[in-house]
Design goal:
- The protein has one domain: Rossmann fold.
- The N and C termini lie close together (11 Å).
- It has 5 helices and 7 strands; from the N terminus they run βαββαβαββαβα.
- By secondary structure, it is an alpha/beta fold.
- It is globular and about 40 Å long.
- Strands 1, 2, 3, 4, 5, 6 and 7 form a 7-stranded parallel sheet that branches.
- The longest helix is centred in the N-terminal third of the chain and has 17 residues.
Length: 171
């Protein structure tokens, strides 16, 4: 198993996110459990391209301080929603079978990565409360979160488990 920490970057990691404090707490607990049990933690940063303010060299592009990678943890950059758009990452995990996914945003990069992983035959595990998103023109962050975590992913694309269950899976 590998733990993917997706797009928890300075420019989007703040109180605008649905259930922000709980999201950070749950995510940091899962990262700690993975590290404590020698499960590899792999980070991703989304790059919107030069001049967007959310690209390599921009402060908002940097990984948020709450989830700073440890020494020697891999960090991949992607420029499309799914992590599988990065060929180096795809090659790196080709012999893996299970991916636990946490991060931002539920309805963009998390959803795209969940479905891409499922289509490639990976077992996907989603810890509840360890992904989040913002309000949008159509749904609140809460409704968006529940749509994916409670309706879209379970029994289709992923196994959705409590944080405690996720930690037990990492042990």
């Amino acid at each position: 198993m590998k733990l993917l920490v997706i797009d928890i970057q300075k420019g989007i990691t703040d109180s605008r996110l649905y259930n922000f404090e709980s999201f950070i707490e749950n995510t940091t607990q899962i990262i700690k459990a993975a590290r404590d049990n020698h499960i590899e933690v792999i980070y991703f940063q989304h790059d919107d391209g030069p001049g967007t303010g959310f690209s390599i060299g921009d402060e908002d592009f940097e990984i948020a301080v709450q989830v700073t990678p440890a020494d020697r943890e891999k960090v991949f950059v992607k420029n499309i929603n799914t992590c599988f758009g990065n060929k180096e990452f795809v090659d790196y995990i080709k012999n893996e079978d299970t991916l636990m996914i946490v991060g931002l945003q539920t309805n963009f990069c998390i959803d795209a990565t969940v479905k891409s992983a499922f289509e490639r035959g990976y077992k996907v595990i989603i810890p509840q409360g360890a992904n989040s998103t913002f309000d949008n023109d159509y749904m609140t962050g809460e409704v968006t979160y529940k749509y994916y975590n409670d309706m879209m992913w379970p029994e289709r694309f992923a196994t959705c488990v409590s944080v405690n269950e996720a930690i037990k899976m990492l042990e």
